[in-house]
Hints:
It is built from eight helices and two strands. It has helices at 2-31, 56-67, 86-95, 97-100, 107-112, 126-139, 142-147, 149-166, and strands at 70-75, 78-83. It has a two-stranded antiparallel ribbon. Strand 1 and strand 2 (78-83) form a beta hairpin.
Amino acid sequence: MAETDIQDYLQLFFLWLLSIIAVRAILTKLRHKPRRPPGPRSLPIIGHLHLISALPHQSFHALSTRYGPAVQVFLGSVPAVVVSCPELAKEFLKTHEPSFSNRFVSAAVHHLSYGSKGFLFAPYGSYWRFLKKICMSELLGGRTLDQFRHLREQETLSFDMSIRLLT
C-alpha cells in the first residue's frame, strides 16, 4: 500500500515538473520572440557563407526572392541584414540611421586603424560627422576636383584602353 502511494506521488511530482517546464518554455518563447527578418538556417561557425557564390549579388537576390525584401544572414558569426527593396533601404539608411550605421570592428581592424580613429571605421557620432564634413569639403570639394581633373581623364583613358585590349 505504501509503495503505490509513493509511486503515485512520484508520478504526480514528475507530471507537475514536466508541465511547469513546458509552460515556462512556451511563455519564454512567446515573450522573447526576436524581431528579426527571416532567413535560412545557418551553420554553426560559417553561418551562411556556404550560400554565397562568386557573384554575391546573385546569391542575395535568390535569397530575397525566397525570404522577402529583408533577409538576415550570418557572415561567419556576424549577423547582417540584406535589403533588396529601395523603400526598405531608404528606411534603413534615413529613418533608422544611428541603429544600423556602425560597422563590426574586429581586433585586427581596431589595431590597423589606430583604435578606429580613421574615417572608414569610426563609430557613428559627432567625430564621424566631423570627419565626413572635412572629407566632403576638402577632398571632394569643387576646387580639389578641378585640380585633379587631368588625372581622372588620364585614368579614364587608361581604363578604356585596357578594356579594349581585353576584348
